[in-house]
Write a structure and sequence with these properties.
The chain has 142 residues and is mainly beta. It has a single domain, classed as Jelly Rolls (Sandwich). It has 1 helix and 11 strands. The protein has a 6-stranded antiparallel sheet with strand order 1-10-3-4-5-6, with no helix packed on it. It has a 5-stranded antiparallel sheet with strand order 9-8-7-2-11, with no helix packed on it. It is globular, with a radius of gyration of 14 Å.
């Protein structure tokens, strides 16, 4: 599922909140931040969070960034604060709810893609199988 922003808003402080339900046996689920249709190139992922089979989260496919825990078969929530500026972009992610805990900070590169933020995507890619649910998606900009 791709949530495309209605317009390009540029640098600023963005916030994502969402509720997820990942059942037992499902493969790796991903939440990604992408350039939008107006991006050059369009819909390119510059930051993503993988909800792993061992119930931890990793950032941008880097095993050294694994953090937190989340439950299977139960709703939990995530928040991501993304601060996009002319000189750098930082992300802060937090898991919360029953059975969910953990937070991480991450410096996002390349900056030129982050400055074109235009979509958030929830997906499960090859070779993973299964399903997951996401609800209560809210993205805001200060």
């Amino acid at each position: 599922m791709t949530c495309t922003f209605s317009k390009f808003l540029g640098n600023g402080s963005y916030s994502l909140t969402a509720s997820l339900f990942i059942p037992s046996g499902s493969g790796l689920a991903t939440v990604s931040f992408d350039t939008g249709p107006q991006g050059a190139p369009p819909y390119i992922d510059f930051l993503h969070f993988d909800f792993m089979q061992n119930n931890t989260v990793r950032i941008n496919d880097d095993g050294n960034t694994a953090f937190g825990t989340f439950p299977r078969d139960q709703v939990f929530s995530i928040t991501v604060s993304l601060n996009i500026a002319a000189s750098n972009t930082t992300a802060h992610m937090q898991l919360f709810g029953p059975g969910a805990a953990g937070s991480a900070d991450y410096n996002v590169t390349p900056l030129v893609l982050a400055q074109q933020l235009g979509a958030v995507k929830f997906w499960m890619g090859y070779p993973w199988t299964g399903s997951f649910k996401v609800t209560n998606i809210v993205v805001t900009k200060k």
